[in-house]
Amino acid sequence: MNAEQLQKTLRASQYAEQVLGLHQAVLEQDYQIDQFAAPLSTEQIYQLVDITLDGIGDEITWMRALRILRSRLMFRWIWQDANQLTDVVT
């Protein structure tokens, strides 16, 4: 991850810092795809949900997987906002 952008992100949000601490490996994998430079389309988010939940058969694992995905997406949006890579609609 870009160190300067990461520092901006972590200064902007304690939540982002917590998510990074819990899910650093998967966040680094997510970052390798597009460096969080572009917003995700609705279709891309749906695809991530489908991929994340594929093959999960029990509710506890399903809910945990969705919580982690939500954290990953929130980290991405915080990154984009902190680094002025997206417009935040109010």
3D architecture notes:
InterPro entries: NT_sf. The chain is globular. Helices cover 74% and strands 0% of the residues. It has 90 residues and is an all-alpha fold.
Given helix and strand content, the structural type is mainly alpha
Helix-strand sequence: HHHH
Biggest β-sheet description: none
Tell me the total number of β-strands: 0
Uncertain regions: pLDDT < 50 for 5+ in a row? none
Name the beta content range: under 5%
Oligomeric nature of the chains: single chain
Q: Please give the radius of gyration in angstroms.
A: 13 Å
- Terminal CA distance reads 28 Å
Helical proportion, percent range:
over 70%
Please tell me what the overall shape is: globular
**Helical stretch count?**
4
Give the rounded overall mean pLDDT: 95
Topology of this structure?
Blueprint: H1 3-12, H2 14-34, H3 42-53, H4 59-82
Short description:
This protein is mainly alpha-helical and 90 residues long.
Keywords:
90 residues; mainly alpha; globular; NT_sf
